[in-house]
Amino acid sequence: MTPITEVEGRRLALSNLDKVLYPATGTTKGEVLHYYAATAAEAMLPHLRDRPLSFLRYPDGPEGLRFFTKNPPPGTPDWVRTAPVPRSDDPDARQVLAQDLPSLMWAANLVVEFHTHQWRQDSPAVADRMVFDLDPGPPASVVECCAVALWLRERLARDGLPSYGKTSGSKGLHLLVPLEPTPSGEVTAYAKTLALEAQAALPGLAVHRMTRALRPGKVFVDFSQNAAAKTTAAPYTLRAKGSPTVSAPVTWDEIEACGAPDDLLFLAGDMAARLERHGDLLGPLTDPGQARPLPGG
Length: 297
Hints:
DNA ligase (ATP) activity, four-stranded antiparallel β-sheet, 297 residues
């Protein structure tokens, strides 16, 4: 029988709790759900709230079938809120919102990566944060991403913009900036300008184009995830990798000190201690008082 759990007054059927999702660590689905409920939820929910979600689903673990979905899946409870997100192929499209712990746990039970837009559901295509996705081309690693992130931090600071880092949970690094509401197109254009500047300033290290032939040993400064239609892995989400890696906020001291890829590799089991020590390092992103205007916006 599928156990029924009550979460803040909502009844949830949590299935296959003993199923091993991450064979490398023996991590079960039950342990994944425990991570979200007991460790991540308090810090994670403010970063999800009011942001339409896309899911990368991997119900049989990272080695099984993986598929990306934006539409609410069949059987979505009527108490899980959704928001309209019209698309060219579906003007009536909607996406899930994770507004509370029951919604988070319902989604986690599907075994998903959580991905969010840079805007909120009440202001579609008007971003309140900017993201740079720093993606290393082998043999480059997160070490090289950190060097590019440090350059970007200084460049953003010259424009009066604070920035905060998190691991992608894969090989790279995400740099995030809290903004006063700004049309996504303007944010994308500004981010592209900085990506081009990074490439000019760090010609042996940074590249602003996705072309694979240009990327070996360099860091792709992906500015395109600021486009209104794009989504990025949310803070604290587990990733569909060989181990239960987390898209984990990191300090600038950690970025400056990074000398090997494992220095910025964090698993689900690491996060309780990190949150106890640091709190939510990305808290400023959810504080309207920390938002800054985009230069020229």
